[in-house]
């Protein structure tokens, strides 16, 4: 983040990130973030649009606080939405209306005219696209009904939330609570293939699924275990996570180990607090093969060259091997890898394996 923020702004940012992860219901988490977010980035309205990609695109709007009647009519106006193209061109980056079109064009747009008819007067907008593989995107927007443009500093601050928002949407979606309200443990109990344990801080195991027990016996020996019965390497991560700042915690929320032709991965998901009870964490376990096909829904988001490189990654090729096969420099491959991560909203090679495996055979 190139902009220097004040101590107050950093404090508010931490409150917003904490709210994003305060609940596994997406609407509840957004509502919890509304007050500190609108204090940090003053606006009159905020909204998130969930888009399910397929033969046709489905839209679901979540609007904390005051209802925006214009968004109730969105399917009628989607083709006139001047926000869509700019944010799809630059995912994970906050774009201001002044970067999308001229003021004259904004005032002549169908959406602006309709907002005036509804007495909303949406004078300014700042929005950001959040790709959430597989097959989903979220768009987050802030609206001002006064003539006060969003600043570059506002854009930098909203952009700094991109990875946290993607993680929020992904956690809620993966646990299938975004629309149904089903609690995490009820959802996981209903899946025969669910591999998870639930731990109460600091190291008291609350629950372990049969699949998780099987994987732990396969992955670890008795000498690998902490006194609590949790593998030492995972116990160390559990102890460290609560003391990390929000950005570091996000980076540390995935543990990965390569064994032969399979990655062993564990996602750490902090569960919502319940009264004064100790905070609990869910550890969700996956086995991911290192050579799998590139799913079509991911390929459509990449250029031809990026597709070739992604396929090489999914064959477990190193950057050097990919460079040799495609007659490129390693530096060029690294540059393409960064673009692939940004386009697919992923953090690592392992995350690409996870998304591809999910789409080829849901895990």
Keywords:
single chain; 363 residues; alpha+beta; Beta-Lactamase; Arc Repressor Mutant, subunit A; 3 domains; five-stranded antiparallel β-sheet; 10 strands
Description:
- This protein is an alpha+beta fold and 363 residues long.
- It has three domains: 7-174, Beta-Lactamase; 184-289, PAS domain (Beta-Lactamase, 2-Layer Sandwich), CATH 3.30.450.20; 296-360, Arc Repressor Mutant, subunit A (Orthogonal Bundle).
- The chain has 19 helices and ten strands.
- It has helices spanning 7-20, 26-40, 69-72, 74-77, 84-89, 97-100, 103-107, 110-117, 152-159, 162-174, 184-189, 210-219, 232-240, 246-251, 296-299, 304-314, 319-326, 330-344, 349-360; strands spanning 45-52, 58-62, 95-96, 124-131, 136-144, 196-200, 204-208, 254-259, 262-270, 280-289.
- The strands form two sheets. A five-stranded antiparallel sheet has the order 2-1-5-4-3. The chain has a five-stranded antiparallel sheet with strand order 7-6-10-9-8.
- The longest helix is centred in the first third of the chain and has 15 residues, at 26-40.
């Amino acid at each position: 983040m190139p902009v220097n923020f004040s101590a107050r702004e950093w404090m508010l940012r931490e409150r917003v990130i904490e709210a994003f992860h305060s609940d596994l219901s997406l609407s509840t988490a957004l509502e919890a973030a509304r007050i500190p977010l609108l204090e940090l980035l003053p606006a009159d309205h905020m909204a998130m649009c969930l888009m399910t990609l397929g033969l046709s695109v489905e839209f679901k709007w979540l609007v904390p606080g005051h209802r925006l009647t214009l968004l109730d009519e969105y399917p009628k106006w989607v083709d006139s939405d001047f926000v869509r193209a700019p944010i799809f061109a630059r995912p994970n980056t906050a774009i201001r209306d002044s970067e999308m079109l001229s003021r004259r064009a904004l005032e002549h747009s169908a959406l602006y005219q309709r907002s005036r008819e509804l007495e909303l007067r949406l004078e300014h907008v700042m929005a950001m696209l959040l790709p959430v593989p597989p097959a989903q995107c979220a768009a987050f927007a802030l609206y001002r009904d006064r003539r006060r443009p969003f600043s570059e500093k506002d854009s930098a601050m909203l952009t700094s939330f991109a990875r946290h928002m993607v993680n929020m949407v992904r956690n809620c979606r993966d646990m299938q609570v975004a629309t149904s309200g089903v609690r995490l443990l009820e959802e996981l109990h209903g899946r025969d293939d669910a591999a998870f344990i639930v731990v109460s801080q600091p190291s008291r195991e609350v629950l372990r699924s049969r699949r998780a027990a099987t994987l732990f016996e396969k992955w670890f020996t008795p000498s690998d275990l902490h006194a609590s019965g949790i593998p030492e390497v995972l116990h160390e991560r559990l102890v460290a996570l609560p003391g990390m700042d929000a950005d570091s915690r996000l980076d540390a929320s995935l543990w990965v180990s390569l064994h032969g032709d399979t990655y062993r991965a564990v996602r750490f998901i902090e569960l919502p607090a319940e009264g004064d009870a100790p905070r609990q964490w869910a550890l969700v376990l996956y086995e991911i093969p290192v050579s799998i096909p590139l799913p079509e829904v991911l390929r459509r988001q990449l250029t031809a060259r990026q597709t070739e490189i992604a396929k090489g990654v999914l064959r477990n090729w190193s950057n050097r091997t990919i460079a040799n096969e495609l007659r490129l420099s390693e530096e060029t491959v690294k540059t393409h890898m960064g673009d692939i991560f940004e386009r697919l909203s992923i953090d690592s090679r392992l995350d690409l394996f996870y998304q591809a495996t999910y789409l080829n055979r849901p895990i």
